[in-house]
Amino acid sequence: MAPSRLAAVAGGALALAAGSALAQGSGGFGIELVEKAGDAEMSGALRILLALTLLSLIPSALVAVTAFTRIVIVLSMLRHALGMQETPPNMVLIGLALFLTLFTMTPVIRQVSEQAVTPYLEGSMPLREAATQGAAPLRDFMVRQTREQDLALMVELSKAEAPQSVEDISLVQLVPAFMLSELRTAFQIGFVIFLPFLLVDLVISSVLMSMGMLMVPPIVLSLPIKVLMFVLVDGWSLVVKSLVGSFA
After folding, report:
1. How far apart are CA 241 and CA 248, in angstroms?
2. What is the pTM of this model?
3. Do residues 171 and 21 touch, judged by C-beta distance below 8 A?
4. Does the pLDDT at position 205 exceed 70?
């Protein structure tokens, strides 16, 4: 699948998922389009308006229901562990996080494309059914990455009955539970990344104190050493491999 088509399918998948989430709101809110023979033009206009509305939700859906949260937090913590506040720039980190997210979510996006986006675009499936079918692969992905404790917490806070199966889990409960699990996992990975850099800082500080060079900031020596160590061990490849492998 070409990158441009894959990106388009990703947008359609997230839009359908957002529509499904709106339909499952706690207040029973839903969107229903009624088509009549004489209102074909109005129905088309409403469909375009609805599509544009859902597309505006894609940035929030990208953060909420994909691997983006874990990846961008780990990359940001890696930058802080190195001791460089502005290098790599935010644009570079976000771009890398976006493409790693697209790479990680490719199997899910293909399932959504086959089950929902393509049938809807061909006109063989109504919007409501497409939203339901498109949300199923995303639901399975989020359930696999969500801890039971986080899901139980959201069910308890919503004061709802405990779900008996995966299909019974509401997206209103699953999405925040998934994000809590992603935050926990990202901080766990970030802690492991911080340890070797913290060790370098401690060693450099001890050496400077033992030599009586108290006026020399430790970061002056530790920063180039940490960068050199990170390059020698091929740190970027290790971090990317660990991040992608954490979703297996």
Report:
1. 11
2. 0.72
3. yes
4. yes
